Amino acid sequence: METTIIGFPRIGAQRELKFVTEKYFRGKVSIDSLNETACNLRKKHWLLQKNSGLNLIPVNDFSLYDTTLDTAVLFNVIPRRYHRLGLNPLDTYFAMARGYQGVHGDVKALAMKKWFNTNYHYMVPELEDDMNIKLTGTKIIDECKEALALKLLAKPVILGPFTFLQLARCTGKKTKRDFADVLTNAYKELLTVLEKLGITWLSVEEPLLVTDLSQEDLSLFADIYRDILQNKQGVQILCQTYFGDVRDCYHILTALDFDGIGLDFLEGKETLSTLCANGFPEDKILFAGVVNGKNIWRNNYTATLTLLKKIQSKARYIVLNSSCSLLHVPFTITQEIHLNKKYLLHFSFAEEKLQELSDLKKLMDSTEPKMEKIYKNNVALFAVPHAVPDAMVQKRVACLTKKDFTRHPGFTERENLQKKTFHFPLLPTTTIGSFPQTLAVRKNRADYRNNKISLETYKNFNKKQIAACIALQEKIGLDVLVHGEFERNDMVEYFGEHLNGFIFTENAWVQSYGTRCVKPPIIWSDVSRRKSITVEWSTYAQQLTNKPVKGMLTGPVTILNWSFPREDIALRESTIQIALAIRDEVLDLEKHGIRIIQIDEAALREKLPLRKADWHTNYLDWAIPAFRLVHSGVKVETQIHTHMCYSEFNDIIKDIDNMDADVITFEASRSDFTVLDALQAAEFRTEVGPGVYDIHSPRVPSELEIEKSLKVMLTKIVPQKLWVNPDCGLKTRSIIETKASLEHLVSAAIQVRKTMDSK
User: Fold this and answer.
1) Please, are residues 278 and 252 in contact by the beta-carbon 8 Å criterion?
2) Would 56-217 and 425-758 be classified into the same CATH topology?
3) What are the backbone dihedrals phi and psi of residue 542, each rounded to the nearest 5 degrees, phi first?
């Protein structure tokens, strides 16, 4: 029995890739230095996997920004606007990822969306009618050569043509089906090159197979692979799925001439039953995803061995595999120097998951005493629950009734009263929350955390930052202000640090997109609020201005989705516990005079099941009420905002309206405001602020650009319901970029108001 994984974290144990790439963006290192660091990381990661006993080593899972973008560039799916810049290939690549503004031109980045049900973001490829799609890139080929030079049994991985097509966006008259043949030919070109290199396995990742697919979709998938598999030559092809089960296409998948099929036995709730009901072809290898690639808890060997024996009864040849790429978990627990061992015993990051695969392989194949001891230790770990229940929290959850999830009076009455209360102009302007986190801001937090400065020094510094932030916003002319969040490291980690039930790591970083990394907290036990979290900062900011300052909170669903959740209780129960804790903070802010409170649910869509039949029964039936629970107790004149970003909202737009917020801001600029049609079609009740510019790009939008965007919005949204704001928080941007962009935003709003008044 062999072992493999689908992919490995690429940022490095110390986030080496992040730091060198950001230096490259700032012009501090050369292309050669960036490539050298990347090459060294690849080799280090491959050798780590080899030394752990992994048999098939994934290659091409490494990326300088995003693997979907890598696939687009590999096959020349590069829109004209980026070619026209005349940049070198690497800078063209980064222009697609981040946008470009400079001497060569001004272009926006590609759209960015969440990768299925994760917090990772991918770049959305664009298909133009006249694109010459063919194998022009060399990244996967070059990395295969590197791996072969190290005498590794390389298993190159690549996003499959079916999923690539379905995730892409057509910008002309052609449909995705129109591009299928030429894209298929490009993959066949790649197969020929890999075969000449001596590659024996190619893993094509087709995660779209675990979603709802039409017969037309399934037909397209079958047509693409019949063509490819007829030309596979000496390369064995693995069709790798993850994030769910393939119940709708199992027969098609197993009937095609794949040499291996990768199935997820953890998130794939029906994978085992499908396998047992239908069997598995004897001429194929089953790559069984039994080690969790998303969560950080130790593998329960007893449960996994029981599962493997059931799988083994139906499949002749098995390779042990991760359930998905290990990209979604931190690198290693060995860097957690200060975390108590009683916690660490329960955790398994990417490096440790390699060991788990090795252990499971040996436990299936061997009865040696060493393995017996390892097994007994694992059994002991799961013999006693790790979390001690909090009786007060559990009683509070049990006592909730239907009225706790409903705000009174209804939306229309609230909206009318709030307009009289605040007297905002048409198209009120605001930001999403955070302001730039400078080196000095980060140093102040680090110095306080490391006991280098006193609490008084720490607070005084933050208050000066808040005062400057308020003054800047007033000078720019924003209508609703924020305090800037200078005390916060991360929108989830910060709240977790102030709640009972969470624990925190030092170096458990996970890539979110590009060079953006997050350090998710871990939900260890029942959750409650110890004391007020944000009141001091929000009330201080409000004292500095007559304009309303938003109290800024993170919502319960986002806190859950951007943490590593418990596996011993239901997600719903954890979320309701968090909701009660945040509800306490909401009521505290209101009591202290904060009249507008924003409760961000940026990750609402993230754990939405990939099949629509499961949406309401397994997620939305508790996620939406959890948000309503947070704000249902506020006064009628208190205005509740929320924010969502970088997901497909169109198909759950009515559920979002049912969150019963007063104002919702959306990411919209990177996706060309496609959400506007959904808002109009759903007769969206809630006031709304589609983001007018992309904060994940360093480019500064012009006033005219924002004016045009607002005029497009006003064709779909009545002016009385439209807010003007960026598409996300500003913490990753520079002060210069932020100031210029917000000045253009306010000027554009004023100009559009004037044109409305003249009519």
Assistant:
1) no
2) yes
3) -65, -30
Report residue 259: phi and psi, to 5°: -85, -25
Kindly report the number of other CB atoms within 10 A of residue 316's CB atom. Answer: 12
CB-facing half-sphere around the CA of 396: CA atoms within 13 A: 20
Single-letter amino acid code for the residue at 593: G
* Token representation of residue 688: 């709304």
Please enumerate in sequence order all residues whose Cβ is within 8 A of that of 383, keeping only pairs 6 or more positions apart, or say none: none
Q: What is the dihedral of CA 155, 156, 159, 162, to 10 degrees?
A: -70
CATH number for the domain formed by residue range(s) 425-758: 3.20.20.210
Q: Mind telling me the catalytic residues?
A: 696
Strands 126-127 and 169-170: parallel
How far is the C-alpha of 564 from the C-alpha of 566, rounded, in Å? 7
116: left (phi over 0), alpha (psi -120 to 50) or beta: left
Buried b (16+ CB within 10 A) or exposed e, 206-233: bbbbbbebeeebbebbbebbebbeeebe
Beta carbons of 162 and 214 less than 8 angstroms apart: no
Residue 668 per-residue DSSP state:
-
pLDDT, residue 672, reads 73
From the CB of residue 186, how many other CB atoms can be counted at a distance below 10 Å?
Answer: 19
Residue 606: the pLDDT is 87
What's the sign of the alpha-carbon dihedral 103, 104, 106, 109?
negative
DSSP collapsed to 3 states, 273-331: HHHHHHCCCCCCEEEEEEECCCCCECCCHHHHHHHHHHHHCCCCEEEEEECCCHHHCCC
Domain ranges of the chain: 56-217, 425-758
pLDDT at residue 366, rounded to an integer: 76
Alpha helix (H) residue ranges in 150-175: 161-167
* Rounded-to-integer distance, Cα 287 and Cα 315, Å: 10
Predicted pLDDT at 647: 60
Alpha carbon dihedral 83, 88, 90, 95, in 10-degree steps, equals: -40
Contact residues for 160 (Cβ-Cβ < 8 A; gap 6+) = 204, 205, 206, 239
Chain centre to alpha carbon of residue 213: 23
56-217, CATH topology level: TIM Barrel (3.20.20)
Q: Please give the pLDDT value at position 233.
A: 78
Q: How deeply is 587 buried, as exposed, middle or buried, from its count of CB atoms within 10 A (0-12, 13-18, 19+)?
A: middle
Token pair recorded at residue 370: 């060493």
Instruction: Mention every residue, 6+ apart, whose C-beta is less than 8 A from residue 27.
Output: none
Q: How far apart are CA 362 and CA 301, in angstroms?
A: 12
- Map residue 713 onto helix, strand or coil: helix
Q: For tokens 């006031």, what's the residue?
A: 687
Which positions ≥6 away from 323 have C-beta within 8 Å?
Answer: 242, 264, 265, 266, 267, 289, 290, 291, 292, 293, 294
Q: pTM to 2 decimals?
A: 0.92
Cβ contact 508:520 at 8 Å: yes
Are 7 and 325 in contact by the 8 Å Cβ rule? The answer is: yes
Q: Is the dihedral of CA 570, 574, 580, 582 positive or negative?
A: negative
Judge residue 731's burial from the number of C-beta atoms within 10 Å of its C-beta, 0-12 exposed, 13-18 middle, 19 or more buried.
buried
What's the confidence (pLDDT) of residue 160? 98
Average pLDDT per run of 10 along the chain, which is 759 residues long? Answer: 96 97 97 97 98 97 98 98 96 96 92 92 97 97 97 97 97 96 97 96 98 96 96 91 96 97 97 97 97 97 97 96 98 94 95 97 84 93 92 97 95 95 96 93 94 96 97 97 94 92 95 94 96 96 98 96 94 97 98 97 90 92 97 97 79 92 88 83 93 87 95 94 94 93 97 84
